[in-house]
Amino acid sequence: MREKIIELEKTARTLEPDSRARSVVREKVVGYTEAFLDNIENVKTYNQNAEMGSGLLNSPISETGIEINEAIRLLSENVDFPGLNPASGGHLGYIPGGGIYFSALGDYLADVFNRFAGVFYASPGAVRMENMLIRWMADLVGYPASASGNLTTGGSLANLIAIVTARDAMGIKASEISRSVIYLSKQAHHSIDKAIRIAGLQECVI
Fold it and tell me: CB under 8 Å to 201, separation ≥6 — which residues?
């Protein structure tokens, strides 16, 4: 058992690179992103090729890693090239939008330090930062000082929270679901239908 634990520890150490290894990988990643940003004005809004990302299938997920150059090549050819490019000046859609460089750096810092903001004692500063952002956003919309909320991973989860909040705010009981009405426009996002089902409201009149 001891030998097995030592063996597993050596394997796990590969996930904790030293300063030199971090520097090598980081320079490759930054170089790749800088090349993209420097040429962003010439990037097409939509790209397609014969593979359309299928090249990833030739590099299945495994217990052994691949070199950073190979990882970037796979990413470039199969993820970042084919399909819609939200960062292009020709993309006029509201969702999804192009990335913001400083926000990306903020994500990097958050991922490296990996503070847990789920409870105050674990990371008071992170919780305060989240609450400050929610308050700022509420003020932008014009909500009263009593308004509160939370940050979600995206619109789909936000829609689910909204549906459940509306259900609970109206006090809809199980026996009342079939008589309850949900109004949607033809432009409703597909996540709304999922949220309705997850919230147990699929028998509502829609």
Answer: 163, 167, 172, 177, 180, 182
Cα separation, 90 vs 200, whole angstroms = 40
Query: Per the structure block, which two tokens stand in for 184?
Result: 């949607």
Amino acid at site 63: E
Report field, pTM of the whole predicted structure over 0.90: no
Say how many Å lie between the first and final Cα of the chain, rounded.
Answer: 59
- The CA distance from 76 to 78, in Å, is 6
- Which DSSP letter does residue 24 get? H
The C-alpha torsion from 83 through 88 and 91 to 97, rounded to 10°, is 90
At 7 the pLDDT is 87
Q: Are 160 and 195 in contact (CB under 8 A)?
A: yes
Q: What is the rounded CA–CA span in Å between residue 201 and residue 168?
A: 12
Locus of tokens 């990306």: 104
